[in-house]
Amino acid sequence: MSRAAFWLLTAALASSAAALTDQATAEAQARALLARLSTDEKIGQVTMAHFFRFTEGGRSAPIAANAAQTFGALKPGSLLNGGGDTPQPNTPRGWADFLAGLDTLGRANLPQGIPAVFGTDAVHGVNNVPAATLFPHNIGLGAAFNPALTREVAQATARDLRALNTAWTFAPVADVGRDPRWGRYYETFGEAPWLVADQVAAAVTGLQGEGVAATLKHFTGYGLPSLGLDRGNAEISARALHETFLPSFQAGIRAGALSVMANSGSVNGVPVHASKALLTDVLRGELGFNGLLVSDWNDIDRLVGTFRSQPDLVRAAAASVNAGIDVYMVPNTVEAYQAALKEAVTAGQVSTARLDEATLRLLTFKARLGLLETPLAGSGVLEDHRALAKKAAAATLTLLDNPRGTLPLKAGRVLVTGPAQDSPAIQLGGWSVNWQGVGKGNVREVPRVTTLAPALKATAPAGVTVSALPEGKRPQLLAAAKGADVVVVALGEPPAAEWEANNPSLTLPAEQLTLLRDLVGTGKPVVAVLMAGRPIMLPADVQVELAGLVMAYLPGTEGGAALADALYGRTGFPGRLPFSWPETAVQAGLTADRPPEGAGQAPQPLYPLGYGLDYTTSAAREVTATARPDDVTLSAALTNSGSRAGTVTFVVRAALPASGALQAVARPVAVLQADLKAGETRRVTVTVPNERLQSWVGDAFGTVRPELLPGTYTLTAGDGRADFTLP
């Protein structure tokens, strides 16, 4: 066999192994199994246990000697590892062997030999494994405005998951980020519903194309918590629900997402885990989702202990299952939940038909992944994705200010400092090896990361000398700064996740602001590089003195290398803000689609959605729009009017006819993008579906409905615009 034929055969086998079983075949397999299960066995199926229930000492350790008995007692349909909860050794081979071992025990000791399905949070690569390549977090990928890139990252992540014997990830986050104070803001793709929708669809397609089930989370309204606090109550009108929070989930469902995770918070005072209106009427009835609905961690218990909306676990279980939850992620108190659900079924609070429905969905889910037929046989070998990680990081980088042309760094003495100059923890952010980030919790390994200062030193062009100093020894640092031609200071948020990542004031730690002020005070040009998951408020009197400001988001494993290339001018800054950057923290929640209000005040952000500078300039001209029955075709001549090649990106905004209610002056609906040589012009076309131009009409209370209103519509891209009229 020739080498070419060998690789073609290998690719074909890999493709076959990753292909999802079609829905009808999978459901037929599932129904045959369901008929042979008892009530207790069905309750086991809809229960997700932590894999620490099967390890020595209930911790990161080898499989316990009594694991077979534990399988027999709990009968779990699915197993979970939380962020930072790992086998030993925490290596790719260790993961593959550990999960294969659990799979073998499960098939031998679970009812009808039905294996448990393993689920994990692989949100920017297989982020629990120190040896893995980690990609930029979603907020950075949103800045690239490139769904094809997001799909490529998802494909790489899925292949690594399959190598580790995992076929289910709790990703992508389909929440729309509407309050940057929120601790999970960086897990979103940004603030604009339809731009996020494109990214979500790409992530689902990439994951499931490689045989890994995607999970749209967290349905819905999670991205607008009160006071910006994680898991807070969201007050959402029916109009806002449909205009803002459902499009991204709708896009993921259309892309074929196999599972959805419910919002841990509440909407309009009702905990989502007990909201039949959201989980059944909207998700399944309106959006047409027919897959698996899984809870978030312990959130049925929280109906009793946190929300106090249910008096006991039995009624909490009944309320949640009847609302639509199929599988309960109850890692450490499996027995209590199973007993409560059994009591609810026995008492008639949960019908046997509803239990059968939930069980059938999980069995169908496993069948679609091919788990019912084939034992796990992952290679235990991860791919080297560093080139893709660098490509992704480079696409996210956003230049906010360069008033004196200090960038690119051309010659002279460059001093690098700041807490993020050589910090894998800050560069990677939360959900990196550990749930709260590198160096936290029960996992101490630090992955191989290319950080900024070493990259600047290693790749400095001729004529540039680079030195790096820590920020701690301030007198020596300031003396060195006075002797430098340019100071690059790398700042960033400490790594964190969920509620621990809430940032009510949108600021950096006080010591970082003091450092920045001290460096600016030397009178030397200071370029600030921010590694953060949200817009950050810098003191206005300091920011105005900066010679450069770069937003790097949380750029992943190769972020330092990508930044060095951009700062030296070997590449540019193609990233554009996927959110509005408020001028003050008081403006948190200011978005590009904010409608006009009665007082006539129109607060403006410091930097708008889609903003970003580069080493070149660009324009959108000759904009045309053609209405068709189902969509509008927008075309524009994009020009790179500068002297260097670059990525030209323009957000397309739509102004709609009056609808009787407040609506955006300019709603973001699409993106025009092209990589252009210096001086090149290219006509680029994008299709805008009619649903992106619909108005949700109706009064303050009651139902709302979508209408494509008659009248004049205006689509803008940059300074170009095109009008069209619908009858």
Beta-strand residue percentage: 15-25%
Structural shape: globular
In angstroms, what is the radius of gyration? 26 Å
Distance between the termini: 64 Å
Q: Decide which structural class fits the backbone.
A: alpha/beta
**Biggest beta sheet attributes:** 6 strands, mixed
Work out the number of β strands: 25
Mean of residue pLDDT?
A: 95
Strand order of the largest sheet: 11-16-15-14-12-13
Number of helical elements = 22
User: Percentage of helical residues?
Assistant: 25-40%
Low-confidence stretches: 1-17
Which keywords apply here?
four-stranded parallel beta sheet, single chain, 32% helix, globular, 727 residues, six-stranded mixed beta sheet
Describe it for me?
The chain is α/β, with parallel strands linked by helices. 32% of the residues lie in helices and 18% in strands. It has 22 helices and 25 strands. The longest helix is centred in the first third of the chain and has 18 residues, at 92-109. The protein is globular and about 75 Å long.
